[in-house]
Write a structure and sequence with these properties.
Blueprint lengths: L4 E5 L3 H10 L6 E5 L2 H10 L4 E5 L7 H11 L4 E6 L4 H11 L3 E4 L4 H62 L4 E4 L5 E4 L1 H6 L18 H8 L12 E5 L2 E9 L9 E5 L1
Parallel strand pairs: 1-2, 1-3, 3-4, 4-5
Antiparallel strand pairs: 6-7, 6-10, 8-9, 9-10
């Protein structure tokens, strides 16, 4: 792809000329510089995927140059071109410049072409990985925003439920919740005061025996018979006339049953 480029930095003009001839038919641009400072200036102007630098150059060495490249352009793949295979030079290149390849002079033309193609593929992989990391980070940030909104909504609903429970608990009218199976769902303070037997029934336990017969009869009716909105029914409880509202719990957020409100 013509938008890709490699930069060769070497103080020997014949080396630059030989590389230019060798790579002229490749599908990337060939850029050159005679020293490290020129190479850095070129990198500041051009988008470069691979940098090949001679180890021995006037001014800063190839390793020092590649060390600066690593800091300023970390995605650029770095290669050392050297007339020596000295182990210390190789180790210094790896430790300071984090080079991808070490090529000795004279080079094999075919091997050099293959090496540069591998370098370009490595650069593509680095960019893809970075883009993937950026995408994952963006998704994490979005999930964090969604979670924050959900937590805020849950906190708001929890506070609303807490407030509703407090209101229900202190409501002066007796309120009793009964499931379809006849188990106690709720009984506020007024309900326990009016029907003391409710105090002995734990939530989700059968409540029928703790209720007056008249209320048992109401619960024995078919759920479809419980009016919505409720129409109060008058019953006798301990010789007193009491109006009872029976509200069918057909809300999808509940498991069914009814609420009894006594007046």
């Amino acid at each position: 792809m013509a938008d890709r480029a490699i930069l060769c930095v070497d103080d020997e003009p014949n080396v630059i000329s030989a590389l230019a001839r060798l790579l002229r038919r490749e599908d990337y641009r060939f850029l050159s510089a005679s020293n490290g400072e020129e190479g850095l200036a070129c990198l500041a102007r051009e988008s470069v995927q691979v940098v090949i630098a001679d180890q021995r150059m006037p001014g800063i060495s190839g390793v020092e140059f590649l060390k600066k490249v690593k800091v300023r352009y970390p995605d650029t793949v770095r290669v050392v071109l050297s007339g020596t295979a000295d182990v210390n030079v190789v180790l210094e290149s790896i430790n300071l410049g984090e080079i991808y390849r070490f090529i000795t002079k004279p080079w094999n033309d075919d091997e050099l072409r293959v090496t540069i193609r591998q370098c370009l593929a490595q650069h593509d992989l680095i960019v893809q990985n970075r883009n993937l990391v950026d995408l994952v980070r963006a998704q994490i940030r979005e999930l964090q925003r969604v979670n924050a909104r959900l937590e805020a909504a849950v906190a708001e609903r929890t506070e609303s439920l807490r407030y509703s429970r407090a209101v229900l608990k202190r409501l002066p009218l007796p309120v009793i919740g009964v499931s379809l199976e006849g188990r106690l769902l709720l009984a506020n303070e007024a309900a326990v005061a009016a029907l003391p037997g409710l105090a002995q029934v734990a939530p989700r336990e059968p409540v029928r025996e703790a209720l007056p017969p008249a209320i048992r009869d109401l619960l024995a009716e078919e759920p479809e018979g419980w009016a919505t909105p409720p129409s109060p029914k008058t019953v006798l409880i301990d010789g007193r006339s009491v109006r009872v509202h029976v509200v069918n719990l057909d809300d999808p957020d509940t498991s069914g049953g009814c609420v009894l409100v006594l007046e």
